[in-house]
Here is the input.
Amino acid sequence: MTNLKDLGEFGLIERLSKNFKHQANDTILPLGDDCAVYSASASKYQLISTDALVENVHFKCSTISPEQLGQKAIAVNLSDIAAMGGTPTRVLITLGISKKISISFLDQLYKGIHKVCMLYNVELFGGDTVSSPSSFFINITILGEAKRGKLFTRKGAKKGDMIFTTGTLGDSCLGLKIQDNKQLKCSSKSRKHLLKKHLHPIPRLKESQLLTRSTCKITSMIDISDGLVQDLQHICRQSGTGALIYEEKLPQSQAFSKVCSENNWDSLPLILNGGEDYELLFTLPSDGVKNLYRQFKKAKALVTHIGEITKSSNKVSLLKKNGERIILPQSPGFSHF
Here is the structure.
């Protein structure tokens, strides 16, 4: 008998949804991407995504404040909208409240939620509250809009396309390790930077809108939530392609490099499989690269060419600094089961 651990999160989703054949006439993109999409008007698409954060699975109340939790819960959902080239509009929130949760906790939680919603002009649109027998949980449903012709999806990458990422990689994962291990060698400056990347992720809406306004032909895009390799594998699976990553070009922050060096850690696994960076990972034809760099330099935003799309279906390879080329295994990323 198949068990949940063997099936995995995405195998379970496929198993449970395979018999649902009905699709509404205005559906543009059903299951399988960062957001579901349907036609809202002659000029716009409606985007919808939902995400749950469960105590002792996604967070611990002992290591994140209620305000930080509220901020992060909204930010990671905004990242899904950014991954589609959309603009967020509304949010619905469901809370599962256990007996140990106080009114003060909820006040601080919503202080964090309010702060991020105000920053990105997002309306609190509704939701639900229920009791939870043991663990607190928060579920966010986010709505947004995208212009027709400027919707970015995981499907569309082609052989020869260049692979880019915004920001730096591995910071959030290392921030989590620092949070869980107080004995690690780490300066106060590095600790502050890495913990901030883990606790206060920045949804790359600015960079996403930069791409939608540009003339660059973005062929696929996803946000890095489960790890670089796993999320790149999603693009490859949807596009029927493979990918090659250049180790020497993977972007690292100064704090990340310094802490890994001081603790004699191999930084590569954290960069490839760490997750929760919430950077944008996207592809475009090589003839659009100069324009892309020009646009990002003008906006003072970091973007890095980290690889290229290949024809090897569903295979992600790594070109190491020593010239060796290896096929990476299916990334474990974060597994719920």
